[in-house]
Every structure is written in structure tokens, then in C-alpha cells.
Design a protein that fits this description.
single chain; alpha/beta; Spore Coat Polysaccharide Biosynthesis Protein SpsA, Chain A; seven-stranded mixed sheet; 9 helices; 9 strands; 40% helix
């Protein structure tokens, strides 16, 4: 990526995360400060009505490479991620959920796959590996299994977990891929992976440590129905 100013850009979409994001930023910034790589952190405030923005500004004092992007009003997780990713300046660009469900040490542990020629590396909470653990509530596991089965059947082949909030992209493919993304809500993962397969990018799915964090912003019934609608929306858009 010719204009890359950083080795890694981390995008964190956030809406009303004043309770959860401090713990995640403490861990992430500590991780970045110990690394030899140059990190850029971009928190995209998707129309928060709490003190999320104020908290981010305070963290910038200890980590100047942390940037706050305020959208002013709520657009949706997909829109927030897209805006952050398209403004990133890293050789590798990734997004992580603000709840810290996936720990920061998954970042550099998975950089090796880019050296092997992969364009995209995505975390999976359903794949099993001896050094990774997944701590999820049973009903979430069950609904996730059903949803992922439908996705594999109707839309995206060969990927076991499309919804894990940990996805990494080679900098060169960010703009060609993400400029095409249209979904603004939680279904953005579906569209970006569908497009990536359609554009013949090499995708590596890896097991990651993942822990359920309370106060989830996802309404499992409502948002699952929306994402189910997104499956057919994507099929109609791209044939």
C-alpha cells in the first residue's frame, strides 16, 4: 500500500459504549505500546448520546495515534465500519468490536497469513483450536449455528462464521472492496465477504479467543431477522 503510514489500522465502531470501551481501550493501547509495529486506532462514534466521544478524546492524550471519527447521528454498524476503514492508513486494516470480546493479541498472531498470500483473515467463534477458547451463552451458540447454516446454504460458501467481529484486510484491497459495500447495519459482514469471494480475494478463517460480554447491542431476534433479509437483498443486488 503506497500511502500506508502505519503497519496496522484498527477500526472500532462504537455507539453508547461508555461502560464497555474503557476496558477494551486499556487493553488495546497497552498491547499497541508494547508492539514494534506502528498502530493507528480509529474509533467511529456512530451517533452516541452518552460520554463515548469524551472518553475517546481523553484516551488520545496517552496514545496520540488514536483518532475519533464522529458521525453526528446514528447510521448503523456497517456504515461506521466502512467510514473508518476507508480513512485508514495501515498496510493491514481490521475492525474489532468495542466490547473487547476478541482480545488484542489476536492481531499479530494472525499476520502470518498475509505473508502466505491471503488477502483477508477473519476470526471464527465456531472453529476449534487447542489454544483458543470460546465462551458464549448457549442460546447465542444455537442461534448462531442456525444463522450460519442458512448463510452457507444460501449465500456464502466455505465460511463457518460470518459474524465474528474480528476481520483483517490487506491494505491494497480495502478501497476496491469496501467502496462497493451498501449495507449499513449488522449485515455488513455478509456483504463484504460475499463481495470478497466474488472478487476472488483469498480468505482465511481462523479460530480466535472469544468471550461473551454483557450489554450486547444486538437484539438477537430483531437483528437476526434483518440479517436474514440482507441475505436475499445481497442475492438480488449481485445475482
Amino acid at each position: 500500500m503506497p500511502d500506508a503510514l502505519f503497519d496496522i489500522s484498527v477500526i472500532i465502531p462504537a455507539k453508547n459504549e461508555e461502560k464497555r470501551i474503557p476496558r477494551f481501550l486499556d487493553s488495546l493501547i497497552s498491547y499497541c505500546q508494547k508492539s514494534r509495529l506502528r498502530y493507528q486506532l480509529i474509533v467511529v462514534d456512530d451517533g452516541s448520546s452518552d460520554k463515548t466521544a469524551e472518553i475517546i478524546i481523553n484516551y488520545k492524550k496517552s496514545f496520540p495515534q488514536l483518532n475519533l471519527m464522529s458521525l453526528g447521528k446514528n447510521h448503523g454498524k456497517g456504515f461506521a465500519i466502512k467510514q473508518g476503514i476507508l480513512s485508514a492508513k495501515g498496510r493491514i486494516v481490521l475492525f474489532m468490536d468495542a466490547d473487547g470480546a476478541t482480545p488484542a493479541d489476536e492481531i499479530e498472531k494472525n499476520l502470518k497469513y498475509f505473508e502466505e498470500g491471503y488477502d483477508i483473515v477473519i476470526g471464527s467463534s465456531v472453529m476449534h483450536q487447542k489454544d483458543c477458547s470460546v465462551k458464549a451463552l448457549l442460546y447465542r451458540k444455537t442461534m448462531g449455528f442456525i444463522f450460519n447454516f442458512l448463510v452457507r446454504t444460501l449465500l456464502i460458501k466455505g465460511i463457518k462464521d460470518t459474524q465474528c467481529g474480528f476481520k483483517m484486510f490487506r491494505g491494497e484491497i480495502v478501497r476496491p472492496l469496501w467502496e462497493k459495500v451498501r449495507i449499513e447495519g449488522f449485515g455488513v459482514d455478509l456483504e463484504v465477504l460475499f463481495l470478497a469471494q466474488k472478487m476472488n480475494y483469498k480468505i482465511k478463517e481462523v479460530a480466535v479467543n472469544w468471550t461473551h460480554v454483557d450489554e450486547s447491542k444486538i437484539n438477537l431476534v430483531r437483528d437476526s431477522l434483518r440479517m436474514f433479509h440482507n441475505i436475499f437483498q445481497i442475492r438480488s443486488w449481485y445475482g
